[in-house]
TrEMBL record:
PANTHER family: MITOCHONDRIAL RIBOSOME-ASSOCIATED GTPASE 1. Its main location: cytoplasm. Residues 16-180 form the CP-type G domain. GTP binds at residues 60-63, 132-137, 176. This is Ribosome biogenesis GTPase A. GO terms for cellular component: cytoplasm. It comes from the Bacteria.
Length: 284
């Protein structure tokens, strides 16, 4: 599948440098991943960028992912310095865990500082992730109404500020934006179906055909129920056509408006109306 490349080597180097600079100021990184595609929504250089920095992996949009696979992912991602939590930022589910897990990850480090006679201070954090993974929504949610800017801090890029969050963390108000592994066509497909990349840069019809084919194999009953069909045509192009007829998405002459149907399928998939799915599976 063809995806227009919006990140150039220069952009990537700059983004990496910005993130690395900001990381020097923080105790904990919040790496946002899409719970439906924890591999495809990750950055290919993230381990190199973060090293052993304490990291909370936020499996976001978990309302749209298969809950049992999300649990498997949490276990698979667990390391001494990494903990993964499932979050639904829209409903606010799982967010209370964020400050708790962050504190746990830096407890030892903070105790060492205290032993040296340093005064206790808030845990400093930053949010990282690819475009559309939910960074802004997450920051707004975590900050909530009690947001207070903590004033300019030396070392922070101009225009960036620390904000105090509900669980008494200090968060950089600007997230670090990372690039996905867009050169892999399978990754491109998953980013497209989940809405991580703009519709102008991929073939909506091709993507929705591939999705339809997969759904028809993986969970035919759900498709039948949603589109009120007794049987599913085994050919994806015909199945898409049938859905168009069912939904009355026609152009003059009684032909199906295939691009409208393709858009409908993608929209309903992304809203979770076709079920909750995880497209990247954890290693066994
Ligand atoms: P950013 O580009 O990473 O800052 O992403 P945004 O915060 O702008 O979010 C991208 C889209 O994802 C928006 O339409 C959000 O409403 C949606 N979104 C964010 N978090 C969640 C979530 O937990 N569940 C669902 N279903 N949608 C979410």
């Amino acid at each position: 599948m063809d995806i227009q490349i919006q990140w150039f080597p220069g952009h990537m180097a700059k983004a990496k440098r910005q993130v690395q600079d900001a990381l020097k100021l923080v105790d904990v990184a919040f790496e946002l991943l899409d719970a439906r595609i924890p591999v495809s929504s990750s950055n290919p250089m993230i381990d190199q960028i973060l090293g052993q920095k304490p990291r909370v992996i936020i499996l976001n949009k978990s309302d749209l992912a298969d809950p049992s696979i999300t649990k498997q992912w949490q276990r698979a991602l667990d390391r001494p310095y990494i903990k993964a939590i499932a979050v639904d930022t829209i409903k606010g589910e799982g967010l209370k865990e964020v400050p708790r897990v962050a504190s746990m990850l830096v407890a030892e480090q903070m105790a060492k500082l205290a032993a040296k006679g340093r005064r206790p201070r808030a845990i400093r954090c930053m949010v990282l992730g690819i475009p559309n993974v939910g960074k802004s929504t997450f920051i707004n949610r975590l900050v909530g109404r009690k947001a207070t800017k903590t004033g300019d801090t030396p070392g922070v890029t101009k225009g960036q500020q620390w904000i105090r969050t509900q669980g008494s963390l200090e968060l950089l108000d600007t997230p670090g934006i990372l690039w996905p592994k867009f050169e892999d066509p399978e990754v491109g497909y998953k980013l497209a179906v989940t809405g991580a990349i703009k519709e102008q840069v991929f073939d909506i019809y091709e993507v929705s055909l591939k999705l339809l084919q997969w759904l028809a194999e993986y969970n035919p009953e759900k498709l039948k129920e949603r589109y009120r069909m007794n049987e599913l045509n085994p050919e994806a192009t015909k199945l898409l056509w049938d859905i168009g007829v069912k939904r009355g998405l026609l152009v003059s002459g009684g032909l199906v408006d295939e691009s409208k149907v393709a858009q409908l399928i993608l929209k309903e998939f992304r809203e979770g109306l076709l079920g909750r799915y995880t497209l990247d599976l954890p290693p066994m």
